[in-house]
Every structure is written in C-alpha cells, then in structure tokens.
Design goal:
The structure holds two protein chains of two kinds.
Chain A (H helix, E strand, L loop, with lengths): L1 H8 L7 H17 L14 E2 L3 E2 L10 E4 L5 E3 L2 E4 L8 H13 L2 E3 L7 E3 L3 E5 L5 H11 L8 E8 L2 H8 L2
Parallel strand pairs in A: 1-9, 3-8, 8-9
Antiparallel strand pairs in A: 3-4, 4-5, 6-7
Chain B lengths: L18 H17 L6 E7 L16 E10 L3 E2 L15 E2 L4 E6 L2 E3 L2 H14 L4 E6 L5 H14 L4 E3 L4 H6 L1
The chains are: A alpha/beta, B alpha/beta.
Chain lengths: 170, 174
Amino acid sequence: MNLAKKQSNDEIVMDMTPMIDIVFQLIIFFMLLMDMSQKDLETLVLPKALSAVEDKPNPLDPRPVINILADGQILVKREVYYDPKRDDGYKKLKEYLLMRSRAMPKAPVEPGSSIIAPDKPILVRADQSTPFKHIQKVMEICGIQDIKIWKIELAAGQEKPAEGAAAGGN
Amino acid sequence: MAIGVGSSEESLEMKGDMTPMIDVVFQLLIFFMLTIKFKLLEGKLSAYLPKDVGVNQTQAEPKEKVEIKLKVEREGSKLMPDDSGKPWEGEGAFKFGPDRVIRYSVGPKSSLEMREIVARVKELYKIDPKGSVTIDPLPGTCYSDVVKILDEVILIGYTDVSFIGDKSALYEKK
C-alpha cells in the first residue's frame, strides 16, 4: 500500500525547453522568409522566357509595379487602380503614374537629345492569358505627354536553361 | 525553474506555467506557415515604348526597323492554368491550349511557325545588328504570345525592342 501511495505522488516533469527552442527557430525561419516586399506582386501565372534576367529590385528605391489580371483588372500594391467593370477611363492609374513619373530622375531619351524623360523603368506584370490590349493601354498611358515613362520591363518566369536548350534549339 | 532559499529544507519553488506561452507560440507558428508565400523565381524583359508617339513630339528618324506582326488565326481551347490539362471552368485565370494558332509576319514573309520567322529575323540581325525591332500584336493576342516572340528577339541579340499601340478601336470600326 505504501509503495502504491509513493508512486502516485511522483510528478513526471517534461522538459519543454528543447521543444520551445525548436518552435522559436521555426518562427524565426518563417519570419525571415516572409518577404514583405512581395505585396507589390500579385499571384499571377507568368509566361516563361529564356532571356528573362533576374529581377533584383532595390528596396530603397521602389519602382512602380503594375499588375494586370487576366480579366484586365489593374492592381498596384494590392489596390485596384482600374476595373473594366467600372470603367473610369483609367483616371486613378493616370494619376498614380503621373505622381511616380514626377518623382523619377530625368535624363535625355537618347544621348544629345533635347527630350527629357524619366530615366527609370516601370515593371508590368500580367497573367499569361491577359489580352495584350490591356498592357498596351498601360503603355499608352505611360506615353502621355506629362508622364513620359518610356522604359518598361515585362515580367516573365525564368525558364531553366536545360528546358530552353531543348525547346529553343538556338 | 527552482530557486533555493538558504540551505533549509523548506525551499521555495517557482514554477512558471509555460502553457499559455506555448499556445501563443504555436498560434504564431501556424500563422506564419499558412501565410508564407515563397519567393517567386521571376525575371524581366526590357523593352521600350515607341519614341515617336507621346514621348517624342518631333518626327522620328527614318530608321530601318524589323516589324513583327502577331495575328491570332485560331484562339484555341482554354485550359486550367496548372498543367493538369483540364478544361477551364470559366472563372479566373486560364491558359491557352496547344491548338492555339498565331500567324507571325515580318515584311512580306508570313508563317504560322514561329521558328521560320525567328530564322528570318536572325538573317535581318546579321545584316544590321544595330537595328531595332517593333512588335505589333494585333487584337486578340495575349501576354504569353507577345512574351514568346519578345524572348526570341532578345535571344537573337536585339536590344532595342518597342511595341505598337492598341489597334482594337480600329478593328471594331471595321
């Protein structure tokens, strides 16, 4: 009887320290991996391109990133700037690009040219099935006299060289 | 955690209850695991807008340009964007099936095979490596059609690539 009583009073203490250590390590891993700059980028299926160069945006000098969904909806930083269902003549997008264009450094379009225009590009990201007319519309707005953004970058998925060598045959 | 007070038998034990902390930590862990979005392997292709429209009000220099026209001959089937090959469900993004047919033209040469046009553009590049290319996607073309040909043009070696504006309005009038 005594023996039984003694056993029931014994406390089993689990050492939680290693588990907490591991959990904290995991949290730090996920926090570091979660790139907050990704809010510029909508989830789109980009077409693949062999010549696509790796995009290394400068976090200290963010450029305008225009996301165009398959239905023509235009988003900038998760905010809808144009919706084909509520056509506002691209007013909001024009205002945004005008504001960004004014903030960009200016340089001659060509060496020796008298035409001064923003010297930085914008990044256009569109879904692979987006009708190109929507991208052309953004380009058209970029070409407006007050905006004058003439350098654009088109986003594409990077194709692996091995796949490309087989498909491209260059 | 145990703190011994003096050397007497009566020792004051302070036990921190770890349960709430572990609960919170697990909640955080689950949150990060669910919201994590791994960095996309993404690249970019540089291009320019026509300098003789909008930006440049002066007359453009007469310069030899290679103009590639893209025209949709057959729209093709719409499939789910994942590579499952299932037909599109009518909502959200989609991709075109392999039955999509695009006609490519460079000057008088026209073909449904992109490689034939690429071969012609290569010849033109050998003649004038400093020349420029203009891509004219006619209404109906989509982003992937344009990126495909733009990719080939850049691979050939052209650095000056521009686009022609939207002609949908013209086609609608017709």
